[in-house]
Amino acid sequence: MNLAQALEGEPALTSATSLDPYGQLVKMLLPRAQAIAIYDRMGLPVWLNDGVDVPELHRLVEGALEQQLRSARGTDGFAEQVDREHCAYVFLLHDADQHLLGAVGVVCRESSQRGDNRPVALVQGLLRPALECLQRELGAQYSIGDLQRSLMVRDRDLELLLGAAHEEATGAETTDDFAQLVQGCVDHLGCSVGALLIPDKNIAVCRTGAGTPPRTGAEVLTRTHRHVLGWTQLHRQTMTANRPTAGGPLGSVPFKVLSCPVMHGAQRVLGVLVLFKPAESPDFDLRQVRIVELLARRVAYILLNAYDPTTGLLTRPAFEKRAQGLLGQPGQPGTHSVIYIDIDRLHVLNENLGMHVGDEVILRVSEVLRRHLTPRMLAARISGDRFAVFATDMPLDDAQTVAENLREGLEQLGFVSGSQTVDVSASFGVARVVEGKHPLAHALAAAEIACKAAKDRGRDRVETYQESDQ
C-alpha cells in the first residue's frame, strides 16, 4: 500500500498561508543547505526553495511518511547520502498527539568523505526552532481545514433536515416527497442503497447512490427487508451493523447497515428507514445515526398527519396533494375520475346503537375501499362518514363500474351488534375530472352533487354526474 492509498480520504492543506518565512528560516539556520522542501502529510511538496526540485529527496520523504504510517513507532529524522558530495536530511513533523503533519527535507553539500557527514541529531538541533514553528503552523492549518470541513458537513446536514422539515410543514406527503428524502440520505451519507418501508400504508421507496444500478438496490432490499422489518418490530430501536457477519440479524449481506424505526409514539412500529453502505466505506458514525433518527421521526410525523388514525386512509389534505401531483403528470387529459361515498344513515346507527357501532361501520367500509384499490387509485376519509376515491386514467364508465362493485361490497358488511342487526350501505357519486383552474375541487363538488342525488333517489345506489345535469 502506497502513501496515497494509506491516506485516501485525508484532507490536504487548505490554508493559503505562505510557508516562505519558515523555509527561509531553515536556510538561515543551515547555510550549507542547497535544496529545501516542505511537505504535507500526503507527501506533496508545498514549498521549495528557489524552485529547486530534487527527485531523490521526494523519494526519501515519501518513503519516510509511508514507514511512519505503517509503524506506530517511527523515527523523527534520518540522513542518507545522495552522492559523493551531498547528503539528504529528512525530519518528520507531528502534533502534540503524535499525529503526522508533514516533513522537511534538506539536501546539504557535505565533505567528500562519507564519514564526515554531520550527525542527524546535530542538524536536527540546529533546525529545531524552524521545525517547531512549522509544526505549529501546519497543525493550525490542518485544524482550520478540519473546522471548515466540519462546518460544510453540518451545512449539508442542515440542508437535508430542512428539506424534510419543508415536507413536514405541508401537512401531507407524496411518494415523491419520501423518494426525495431517501435519495437525500443516500447521497449525503455516501450510501449504495436506501429504502423507506411502511407496510400498512403500502409505501415502499428504494433509491440507489451514484454507480449503483436500481436493480442492485431492488435485489438488496428483496434479500433483507423481512429481516430488517422483523428485527425493528421486535426491538423497536436503531440498529447499526458496521461489521456484519453471516450470523447477524440480516444474514450474510456485504454492506454496512443502518436502520431506524419509524415509530407511532413509543410502542408501535410503523416501518423502517434503512441505509446500506459498501463494506469498504467509512462506518456509520454517531452523527449519521442521529441524522437518520431525526428523519425517521419526521417521516412518522408526516405519516400521522397524512393518514386518518381510525381508517388508515389518507386525510383530505394528503389526498388533495397527492391527487394534484398525479394530475400534474403527463398523460391523456380528461381520463381521470372521482368517486364520492357517503355512508347511509350513520347518524341513526350512532343514536340508536352507540358511537362504537358507527365507528365499527366506518372501519369496515374503509377495509372494503382498501381491498378494491389499484396502484393508480387513491382513497381518503374526507369527513366523518364520507370518503373519496381518485382514479387516474380511468374513464367515467369504468369509474362507475368500480363504484358499483364497492356498493355491492358494502352490502355484504352486515353484522350483529348485541341483539341488533346492523345493515351497511352507502350512496355513491361519480364525476369526471375536467381540465380547468381547479380540476380536482370541481370534480369533488360534482361527485358530491351526484352522491346527494343518489341519496334523494333512495340511497344505496350509484349516480354519475354529467355536465349537462341541472
Describe this structure in words.
α2 (20-29) packs antiparallel against α4, α9 (346-353) packs antiparallel against α10 (355-372) and α10 crosses α11. It contains twelve helices and 17 strands. The longest helix has 50 residues, at 120-169. By secondary structure, the chain is an alpha+beta fold.
Main sheet properties: 5 strands, antiparallel
Uncertain segments are 167-173
Helix content: 40-55%
Order of helices and strands: HHEEHEEEHHEEHEEEHHEHHEEHEEEHE
Query: Number of helical runs?
Result: 12
Please identify the structural class as seen in this structure.
alpha+beta
Mean pLDDT: 82
Q: Widest sheet: strand order?
A: 2-1-5-4-3
The counted number of beta strands is 17
Shape: elongated
- Tell me what portion of residues adopts beta-strand conformation: 15-25%
Distance between the termini: 83 Å
**Rg of Cα set:** 35 Å
